[in-house]
Design goal:
alpha+beta, 5-stranded antiparallel β-sheet, 3-stranded antiparallel β-sheet, about 10% strand
Length: about 600
């Protein structure tokens, strides 16, 4: 549900403005509207600091995981100094590792040239003699030497893997007649390069130790980023106030939840500020705060991939939660896959300390449970039909086959859409008056009458004929509400014209929306078929050799089912969201919200 809000319009003397906002921050219950905020240098600096602390904490988490069994380092630095030391060490590490990689490549090249005196090369250059370094295939080198040995001084230095490395000594000004790419003259010997990289590795180890010791400051960095974020929020509020009376007064708009208004009123009364408290109007940019039970709260993670609902409308989370879980199970539709998700979700929920990961774990658990139940309902377990086993023979006739799944998907879609329409009618009646919901109620009456007459009544064995007085009366009432009650306050002709147009749009829309739910049937069926195919491949492609046959079967089954599980899980995650955000939200009259409730607060350790 959406938590009810109260709107506060506050006027403060300009000299008390800063201290007043600090009092609001200490209270931590009022969301101050920031509408005319312009950044200044101090806020840009705060943003940069927050980013640095968050990045450092994130990078050090991997370091902390590898350092668990090592000795704990003492904390004797302030977060600012610890961050500075960490950043310096981290920067040096990057440069040293780059240099180490460069020298490692050079070492591989220097092996061919062995040991030499760099001073000797320099002396020769001063005397006007240059050394030119080349490499050639062993066979080509022999041919090259025979051809040019009389004209040039060619000296073979080394031979590695059928490649000859040689040097030609010649005057600096001499131009060679042959076309052969010259290698870069080595600046170090192989031994010198090894000594250099040894020094660099020692420096890398020293800087890495500094980084490792910084891991104890992870929580301090997180705390400092949160404290600075609260300071930034306060600065935004200070700079977004509206001036009045030639700058003598400051006007602020704020929001508080209804259940905290007593504490807010107490602070405002004691502060001496003038304020007006009122209920929000539809025109206000009211922040949104959601409050749901433990089960529905798990699915806020999914719902907020789209957006928050607008204040004054209905929070869809409690209604979407069970359906999303149901749709996920429908799409995956295998008891074995459901068991994997159930176990994995339970493991994450119990072992992970991060609150978000634990919520994802419980979400995975419930979706896995739905998949397990759906797999049992269809009689599929890792693609194996349970109906083949004697244990399930008494109930194999009630397993859902492909035909039943097809109709079940359509029925599920109709129920989901009708629920959306019901929510839309309730919201309109609650916020605008009952007469604004009559058109939607008319649609619901027509749909329920048609479904009852065409499906429910014949299946139940009742003798109410199609076109009876009950059916005709219900449809007539629904059509009247649809055509003449869709625009309250307007004349009958405008209502009728608008009603006809809306009826055409709604009828085509509902038909398309209902057919969209067939994706549940298609995904569930395709996953089951693929699982069966991989089982057949495992038995059919395995050689009839003891042990080898079992190994090949296991390999094919593992690869096949992992691939099928990943593809099916992706579809089971995405397509229920699509049905929720497109079909359900549209028919439920969902309106997107502007922003989340974010009160001024002061970080307290």
């Amino acid at each position: 549900m959406i938590v009810p809000m109260m709107k506060y319009s506050m006027i403060v003397f300009y000299k008390d403005y800063q201290s007043f906002l600090q009092q609001l921050q200490e209270l931590g219950l009022i969301d101050v509207t920031i509408s005319t905020w312009k950044t200044n240098d101090e806020e840009v600096n705060l943003v940069e600091k927050i980013k640095n602390y968050k990045q450092a904490a994130q990078q050090l988490k991997s370091v902390a995981d590898t350092q668990k069994n090592q000795q704990n380092h003492e904390k004797n630095l302030r977060p600012e100094k610890a961050l500075e030391i960490y950043n310096n060490a981290s920067s040096k590490l990057i440069k040293l590792k780059t240099e180490s990689d460069k020298i490692s490549k050079e070492i591989a090249e220097l092996v061919a040239w062995g040991e030499f005196d760099a001073n000797c090369i320099e002396t020769l250059q001063k005397a006007g003699i240059a050394l030119h370094f080349y490499e050639l295939n062993e066979k080509r080198f022999e041919e090259f030497k025979k051809l040019w040995d009389e004209k040039y001084s060619i000296t073979e230095i080394n031979k590695i893997n059928h490649t000859a490395y040689f040097v030609i000594t010649a005057p600096i000004s001499e131009v060679f007649d042959f076309d052969l790419p010259e290698l870069k003259q080595p600046s170090l010997t192989h031994r010198q390069a090894l000594e250099n990289i040894k020094k660099i590795k020692t420096e890398i180890e020293e800087q890495q130790n500094i980084v490792n010791r910084s891991a104890v400051y992870i929580n301090d960095f997180i705390a400092e980023s949160e404290r600075l974020s609260d300071d930034l929020h306060l600065s935004k509020a200070v700079n977004s106030g509206e001036e009045a009376a030639d700058g003598k007064l400051m006007i602020i708009e704020g929001w508080a939840t209804v259940d905290t208004q007593t504490e807010v009123d107490s602070l405002l009364n004691s502060s001496g500020a003038f304020y007006i408290k009122e209920r929000p109007t539809p025109e206000d940019n009211t922040p949104v705060k959601l409050k749901n039970n433990r089960f529905a709260r798990l699915f806020e993670f999914i719902e907020q991939f789209y957006t928050l609902p607008k204040y004054g409308t209905t929070d869809m989370t409690p209604y979407c939660a069970p359906f999303y879980m149901f749709f996920f199970g429908f799409c995956l539709c295998d008891g074995g896959y459901g068991l994997i998700f159930l176990t994995l979700g339970l493991f994450i929920a119990k072992k992970m300390k991060n609150d978000l990961l634990r919520r994802v774990g419980w979400l995975t658990f419930w979706c896995g449970l739905a998949t397990l139940l759906f797999g049992m309902a269809t009689g599929s377990f890792f693609g194996v039909s349970l109906g083949k086993f004697k244990l399930f023979e008494p109930v194999k006739n009630i397993f859902l086959d492909s035909k039943k799944l097809f109709y079940f998907a359509l029925g599920t879609g109709l129920v989901h859409l009708l629920l959306g329409m019901g929510i839309k009618a309730y919201s309109k009646a609650k916020y605008f008056g009952f007469r604004y919901s009559l058109s939607t109620i008319g649609w619901m009456i027509v749909l329920i009458s048609a479904i009852s007459s065409l499906i429910i009544v014949p299946v139940s064995g009742c003798t109410v004929p199609y076109g009876s007085e009950i059916f005709t009366g219900a449809v007539g009432l629904g059509l009247f509400l649809m055509l003449f009650c869709n625009s309250p306050g307007k004349n009958v002709f405008v209502n009728f014209g608008a009603g006809l147009w809306n009826t055409y749009n709604d009828a085509t829309g509902i038909l398309g929306d209902t057919l969209s739910y067939l994706r549940l049937f298609a995904l569930g069926l395709s996953g089951s078929v693929l699982a069966t195919v991989f089982n057949s491949l495992a038995t059919g492609m395995s050689p009839d050799i003891i042990i080898v046959k079992q190994l090949v079967m296991i390999i094919i089954l593992l690869i096949g089912h992992v691939l099928n599980l990943c593809m099916s899980a992706l579809g089971a995650f995405v397509h229920p969201m699509r049905l929720t955000f497109v079909e359900f939200y549209k028919n439920a009259g969902f309106e997107a919200g502007q922003r989340a409730f974010n009160p001024l607060k002061k970080y307290k350790q």
